[in-house]
């Protein structure tokens, strides 16, 4: 059976999305960062701390790398709470089939965060405010997956 569909095959792309939460106020809040024009896609959209999973690096390890690069936080300033199940997103325009590995982290030093060039703004929001932001695709699904994910001892 031949297909008349001539688009190139989608590139399999594994990414991590880390939801950093703080519990030092009356309500639990999560960190959103607004993507800069200098990142590859979804400019000005809000996201968690995220990045491509590098070759020969586990998603868990990549999560710590991205947090370090994008927030300046050290490993001893965050604690991995949960690892969610993969959330898939197909973006025909970008030619990518994203496999999002979601993580939930507790931040021990939220006031130490200094975002890098990938973000132009950051906000601590209550999770139910997520729908009020223009986010990268499937961010809410990724958050729910992280929240309901496997607990890390």
From TrEMBL:
UniProt-listed InterPro entries: NUDIX_hydrolase-like_dom_sf, NUDIX_hydrolase_dom
Organism, as annotated: Dictyobacter halimunensis
Lineage start: Bacteria, Bacillati, Chloroflexota, Ktedonobacteria, Ktedonobacterales
Domain Nudix hydrolase: 11-148
UniProt record similarity statement: Belongs to the Nudix hydrolase family.
Pfam families with a match to the protein in the record: NUDIX
Protein name: Nudix hydrolase domain-containing protein
């Amino acid at each position: 059976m031949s297909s008349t569909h001539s688009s190139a095959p989608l590139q399999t792309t594994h990414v991590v999305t880390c939801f950093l939460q703080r519990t030092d106020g009356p309500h639990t809040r999560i960190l959103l960062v607004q993507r800069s024009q200098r990142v590859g896609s979804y400019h000005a959209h809000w996201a968690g701390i995220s990045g491509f999973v590098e070759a020969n690096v586990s998603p868990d390890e990549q999560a710590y790398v991205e947090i370090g690069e994008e927030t300046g936080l050290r490993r001893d300033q965050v604690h991995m709470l949960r690892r969610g199940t993969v959330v898939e997103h197909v973006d025909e325009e970008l030619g990518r089939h994203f496999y999002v590995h979601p993580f939930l982290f507790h931040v021990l030093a939220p006031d130490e965060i200094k975002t890098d060039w990938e973000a132009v703004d950051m906000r601590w929001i209550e999770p139910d405010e997520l729908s009020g932001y223009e986010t990268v695709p499937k961010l809410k699904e990724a958050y729910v997956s992280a929240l309901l994910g496997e607990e890390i001892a």
